[in-house]
Amino acid sequence: MGFSMQPYGIQAMLKEGHKHLSGLEEAVLKNIDACKELSAITRTSLGPNGMNKMVINHLDKLFVTNDAATIVNELEVQHPAAKILVLAGKAQQEEIGDGANLTISFAGELLQNAEELIRTGLHPSEIISGYTKAINKTVEILCELVEKGSESMDVRVKEQVITRMKASVASKQFGQEDVLCSLVADACIQVCPKNPANFDVDNVRVAKLLGGGLHNSTIVRGMVLKNDAVGSIKRIEKAKVAVFVSGVDTSATETKGTVLIHSAEQLENYAKTEEAKVEELIKAVADSGAKVIVSGGAVGEMALHFCERYKLMVLKISSKFELRRFCRTTGAVALLKLSQPKPDDLGYVDSVSVQEIGGVRVTIVRSEEGGNRVSTVVLRGSTDSILDDLERAVDDGVNTYKAMCRDSRVVPGAAATEIELARRLKEFSFKETGLDQYAIAKFAESFEMIPRTLAENAGLNAIDIISKLYEQHASGNAKVGVDLEAGETGEDVCKEVSAMNVWDLYVTKFFALKYAADAACTVLRVDQIIMAKPAGGPKREQPAGMDED
Prior knowledge:
Number of strands: 17
Shape: globular
Structural class: alpha/beta
Helix content: 40-55%
Distance between the termini: 65 Å
């Protein structure tokens, strides 16, 4: 009889096959390591000179981008602690739409500093209490750094919008921010409602068309549909629109019916009545004053024939999201079945025309007057990857616009705010007694990561720049930041932010730092990881991706 060893302790309590990690070495430091790895990936993409990452996801789709939110979304992060950072980044992306990179990189830096403290013998709970004090103090200081007079702004004045949007677009597309900001600002201002707080991001659409370059990009008041018009009428102006969800075709009967036909005459009449019925329906639509029919489904050949006869333009929009947006643009009401629309159900467009852009036929629906509720930025570029990246930059711009509609306060950009926060927190840590002060000092040091990373990504001497910045800030110039362009020409790199015109939104910074500190504290609070044995059985397939909307 073989002697089998009986499990004892935690092994006896849990089912076999589980994993159990506890203590500082196994749990805390391993967690910190995983988070550091994640933030090392995103960190090199921070700032305008950030490097691109090439990510190929599980569906073999290629992403070439420096947008941290996209990168961490597509990396399937397995480690539970690193997942917390990913969630913090996602929360920032959903709340503000920009600054996900700052959140993840800063949280990684905080954890790296916490690791040093743990190795010197501090307990994680002391670090957490220090970090909590530090983030509260940071929020206080951040309020003091807000630029005077920036809280009142008119969100319809293009110049003011561009100053606030420039930094966030430049971090994605450096060197093209002027062209992009002007496009995005125009698009946003066009669809801005009477009460700017109700601005809806979904109302600024992006149409990506291959070919040309960024300078060919335009902006359309209305929608751009990526398909051709059905039928031969390709252009119509100042017309009423009827929208049918289920398609323009002869509808089959609800019940099954059998028709018994005795003679050829009856067969002829049967076909004629079907024709007459379709004609009657199309004529009813034409009589209501509609000149354009939009169908959500298939367009039957016979129906199309009569549409041509009554000079109706026919468009087909198969995506129901697009159809909904079309109704929003034109003010039409979508009807379920083909019937005579009431005057209230009709929408109005200024012009619908089919144009060929870069070898692709697109239908441009313009509605200039009367509550223009959707505008489209038409982006042009040479490859799909470039277009996708441009689209991300536009999305960031639009999200920043939404954020500034809620709170338009700005703080100095270009790492000026971070160095000032670092300096003031350092001073604050000297006044603290107790072990928290070491954690607060490390929190202050973590802010140096931002100017350091900006400088390193631009290929400049980071240590030299940080010491220069500290020197300037200590002498009272709280608005001195890193000018990355000056570094290339050999001028002085530290400049006044107002001279460079680089401002960051206060809300972006506020949430990014808050989420980062929260994520770091959450990771530090963990002292044991207990993983059950993964369930066996066939692996579940990932649900298929949704369409673009």
